[in-house]
Amino acid sequence: MRTLPAAEQRLGEQEAEEVFGWILDGETSDEEIARFLREMSTRSETSDEIAGAARALRARLIPIDAPKGTVDCCGTGGDGHHTLNVSTAVSLLVAACGVPVAKHGNRAASSKSGAADTLEALGLNMEAAGRTAEKSLAELGICFLFAKNHHPAMGRIQPIRQQLGVRTIFNLMGPLSNPAGVKRQLIGIARPAYVPIYAAAKAKLGTERTFIASGDEGLDELSIAGGNELADVTGNDFEMRRVNPVQANLPHAPVEAIRGGDPSHNAKALEALLLGAPGPYRDAVLFNAAATLIVAGKTEDWTTGAEMAGEAIDSGAAQQLLADWIAIAQ
């Protein structure tokens, strides 16, 4: 068994790819992995380490074919706010606007309900959704790429992550390793000051356009509570900016207003949202949907993006899409 480097040692991109290859290939003990991940998280991962680790995970994933222009919207998790499932709802709205969405996600590792948990509570058969992912993406413009189906090397890592109960570099690697090979994304991370570091990692990997966002209170999505740090990554470069919900003609609301619960609770809230329920949850979803529609190239205007997403709810298109998705995943 290999011994992992001391956490104080910063790894170059190639070295990180090699080390995480050892971890994913089972060449080191669970105890070593837990120690390494905990210590690395405590001293903060570098952009080289994130990019190298993501390359190791990408090299071992099971890919799917996806239409040109497919996007993903997800958060890294681990923000501790236990909010309702915003990116899951955003995926439905954006797909209902005609943008194919390959939603990459998992069960909860450090939250109460991950994307997979909530979608399952809504009636989506996770096993069938995985088996029919390419079909539903091609025919409906949406699919769920359950991490365990596409990252078999993660099988032994997930229990370690759950035992640690805190965010680790694996939270950061997942969004950079979408099995559909998406070139456009909205990725939320839980540390505002870390946005430029994560954006630098994404730039090393290359993208057509990706937004990296973090709410000022440490939310791993665009927050309607206040301001947000946002990195606009294009190609191998990025620029930083500040954004807030007023730019999308949306009101502010505290994080507590979108506090979630278990999968059943979150599923009921999402169902109500699709039926047109107003309030902070809708506003948070519209704000993040606007960002996703911008990176997808559907608009460059935040207000227009929010209005497009709102119409996907009010017309019933997003609700019908969910019903069709559940029906096809049998």
From TrEMBL:
Q: Where, in this chain's numbering, is anthranilate 2 bound?
A: 161
What pathway is it annotated to?
A: Amino-acid biosynthesis; L-tryptophan biosynthesis; L-tryptophan from chorismate: step 2/5
| Signal peptide from the UniProt entry | none
The record describes how the cofactor is bound as: Binds 2 magnesium ions per monomer.
Q: Which positions does UniProt annotate for Mg(2+) 2 binding? A: 220-221
Name residues in a coiled coil: none
Q: Which reaction does it catalyse?
A: N-(5-phospho-beta-D-ribosyl)anthranilate + diphosphate = 5-phospho-alpha-D-ribose 1-diphosphate + anthranilate
Q: Which UniProt keywords apply?
A: Amino-acid biosynthesis, Aromatic amino acid biosynthesis, Glycosyltransferase, Magnesium, Metal-binding, Transferase, Tryptophan biosynthesis
- Residues that bind 5-phospho-alpha-D-ribose 1-diphosphate: 75, 78-79, 83, 85-88, 103-111, 115
Q: Which residues cross the membrane?
A: none
- NCBIfam families for the chain: trpD
- Listed HAMAP family: TrpD
Q: What is this protein called?
A: Anthranilate phosphoribosyltransferase
- Which species does this protein come from? Qipengyuania profundimaris
Which lineage?
Bacteria, Pseudomonadati, Pseudomonadota, Alphaproteobacteria, Sphingomonadales
Q: What is the gene called?
A: trpD
